[in-house]
Amino acid sequence: MTLTGRSALAALAGVLVILAARDGVALLVVNGLLLVAIAADVALAAGTRSLQLTRSGETKVLLGQSAPVTLTVANRRRRALRADIRDAWPPSAGAQPHHVRVRVPATGQATLTTTLTPTRRGDKRAAVVTIRSLGPLGLAARQARRPVPWTVRVLPPFGSRRHLPGKLSRLRQLDGQHQALLRGQGSEFDSLREYVVGDDVRSIDWRATARRREVVVRTWRPERDRQILIVLDTGRTSAGRVAGIPRLDTAMDAALLLTALAVRAGDRIDFLAMDRRLRARVVGAARSAVLPAITDAMAAIEPELVETDAAALASAALTTARRRSLIVLLTDLNPAAVEEGLLPRLPLLAARNQVLVAAVADPALAEMAAGRADAGRVYAAAAAEQARAGRQRTSALLQRHGALVVDAPPDRLPPVLADAYLELKAAGRL
Fold first, then answer.
1. What is the residue-averaged pLDDT of the chain?
2. pTM for this one?
């Protein structure tokens, strides 16, 4: 049982009566009437034990969008239920409304819709449903708490999807499907055509030239069915925020754009997320299912405040990439972490694979480096220049050991990484 605000108001009115009468009998009468009214209200309130609660609605939603979840309350009794119902969710689920006043007819049912607008990725699990069955006077209520399990998975928003049409247009050019019929340089034979001035003489097919008695050249198309392994570093450096966004979230967005593009290009994509242990793994998924599978796997990943085990990461990558692959490592160009962790293992990774390291650059460093207004800003500019020089040195070391490096601000990293992939494909280096 629980008392309502109306009972407090009734008690306050009784106090005023007692003060006006200034009599002990008035005190007994007022308290007696109030207790009888509360007891009668509780007795006349509909029971809550026989209520049946079920849920339905969305189980997945993109971060930033809304998802409705419906709670159905079935009343099996022959007494109507008048209740205040609170459907509790974690604060990051953004559930609205917090509570609802409903009336469920005898042997009937009512539905309550809670709209979730999450502010963080991950699984949002419903807590408990609190039901207050009110009496006809509204002085007291029968209260029950019932667990009604439901989970909504909040997926990465994939904001870089807007870049996909432009990248697909360029891909069609490489594939020779564009109206301009441009040819990529790839390494898979496509067709023969007559030689024109400016063609590479190394493309001349001498046997076909002898048969046709005219000079013909081979044309090539970008390779298909190539293997791409995306490795997401979830260690401590991924927790840092750049332009208000965690590095991990920006890396996820870049990985999703690359996945969507590679699927349309006919390549196969695998995915690993690691720090000191494996956090997520998507291997061998069909092309039509790989993007949803990777998106779903990313949803529950959070940065771990530990140093990434570079040896375990390299071992997992080599175990997964059993044939020549493009290994895309989304990490940070932290000089200490790279030089002590990744760099010693890079020759092993690059021995039979093409390695591409992608990192989120902080645009605030350029702003700090330009400051010269006072002594404080000069010191800040010196620190920014030192940080930029460290990243450039780290990038040069990685390139010297056979890796390609993409270092771009958060808003530019997804399209720049996609461009790097297309350039490799056009050059036949996958």
1. 88
2. 0.80
